[in-house]
Amino acid sequence: ARFKETYLAHCSQLGVDPINVLLSDESSCGVIRLSGQTLASKGCRALAAALRAGGTVHHIELCNSYINDEGCVILCESLLGTAIETLNLARNNFGSDSADAISKVVRTCTNLKKLILNWNSIGSRSNPFNNLCESLSVSVSLQEIDLQNNKIGPDCTAGLCRLIESSTSVVSINLGWNRIGGAGGHQIARTLSGNQTITFLQLAGNDIDYNTLVTIDDKVQSNSGRKRETEMSSIVLRQQREFQQALSDNADRLKSELELRDAHVVAERQRSLHLSDQYEQIALEKQRLETKLQSAQHDLSETTNELNKLKEDMRQTASSSEDNIKALQAAHAEEQSTWSLKVEDLQTQLHQLQQANQTLCTQQKGAQADISNANDENKQLQDDKRSLTCEVQNFKSKEQETQFKIKQLESTISRHKQEIEDHQQTIKNQQERIKDLEDQFWAIDRKHASAESQLQHHQSETERKISEVRAQCEADKQADLERSHRKLKELQDDVLTKDRLHDELKQDMLRMGERHQKTIDEIEERGKKSKDLLVERDLEIHRLTSLMAQIESEKRRIENELRSAESTRENLTREMENNSRQTQGELDRLTERFTADRMHLEMKVLQRDEKIQNLDSQNLEL
Known about the structure:
Elements: H1 2-14, H2 25-28, E1 31-33, H3 40-53, E2 59-61, H4 69-78, E3 86-88, H5 99-108, E4 114-116, H6 126-138, E5 144-146, H7 157-166, E6 172-174, H8 181-192, E7 200-202, H9 210-317, H10 322-469, H11 488-501, H12 503-513, H13 517-621
Parallel strand pairs: 1-2, 2-3, 3-4, 4-5, 5-6, 6-7
């Protein structure tokens, strides 16, 4: 809103009509497109004031807007230090006086990427142009420069060489249709040999010999090929490093898991040894109880023997006396009851000992079963260890096979690189053929240039005579080379249009019309001659168009070959990716299997720990 208000206010102050395009929403979004709109000095002042007051502008296109040196300087002062990225000032007929202002814009605008100045006269003086090239060479953001048809002569070659030698960001320069000459072309070719960033350099129409152009084109193509090879090699190396890193990570992970599993096996062995010790203690306790039982049985047998002896004694003394018998019977009954009580006590103890012996036998059988289970688990762990070792060996063999496949792919890539180089050689041969066609084109173009020089001569005379009639409208009626073929009727319509805007000049022209009728007749005759020259030029252009069509067909065929080579490279890349995915899948399956085995072992260890705890509790009870 501030941009529009400021622009309208300055248009009112300067007495100029505002341009509707600048009042649209696109101008508020940082884009200004005024190609073909007449600005002149006052319009440039209003636009510059709005740019100072408004928001950020990233793209400005003022192509063919009739900006002279004064207007260019005013606009450039308003752009100092801004965030502009694209500046298009083509076909505005300003000269070297604007070079210093553009140099300041390039030095202060650190985001500027594209500068288009074609069809002007910046190279008419060498010192301002060389200063502009110095500013362009120190820019770190500028990528594309268009200086086509700017009257750049041999004395400007030093600045161009400094630009090519010092710039690290510029990739495209258009210097076509200037006046550099053969010596300047040789100097540019020598300077370009040390540059590795420029991938496009146009020097057509500069009277440079064919061999120099071939040398420059080879260097530019070499920079382009080097850039593509660097990108491809970096991609392949990065993928190979990632694949090798993934393999090494998986191998390290499997190794660490095997070490953990070995530690678990050692712990299980220690636990089995501990169970063996406990079993030996239980066996010793069993022997002690058996010894105690044997001693109790021995005491019982001795007591039975004594009882039998007493019975024998009683039978021997039975004949002596009934009283003695009765007494002995009573004593025997008492002693028998006593001994029966003792026998019952001994039988109870014997029964308890038998129960304890059965319990010990049961515990012994459980301990033996646990020991056998532990031995089975130990054997299972050893079998799992051997299987894991086999799997690791298989993985290493697969890794070797993968490396062998990678080597095969590298050899295939090298072979395809050789094929690409052969295709590039074919392309180079085709380019030489294209250059031969371009030589023919340039020969025709020189004829075209001579015709254009004659046409410019006729146009200069026409403009000189019209300037005598319309001295006040000279800046508004300068015609470009593109409008030189317009008919005199279009020129008269243009004059009438300008006359409606300038009523006073129209009255003067009417008063002077009769006096300059003869001059207008001569202009018509010269216009007819110009039409004849234009017809010849159209015929030449038609023939050149057919030649260019042939060149385009050759280019399309070469592009098809390049696309086929690119598809081959993409197939190789996909094959490498498939191999890496297969290897990763195998690693994932091994990891899942190892995780399942580890969980199974952990469950077994937990069960065995519970059994050991139960045995410990039973031992404590015993």
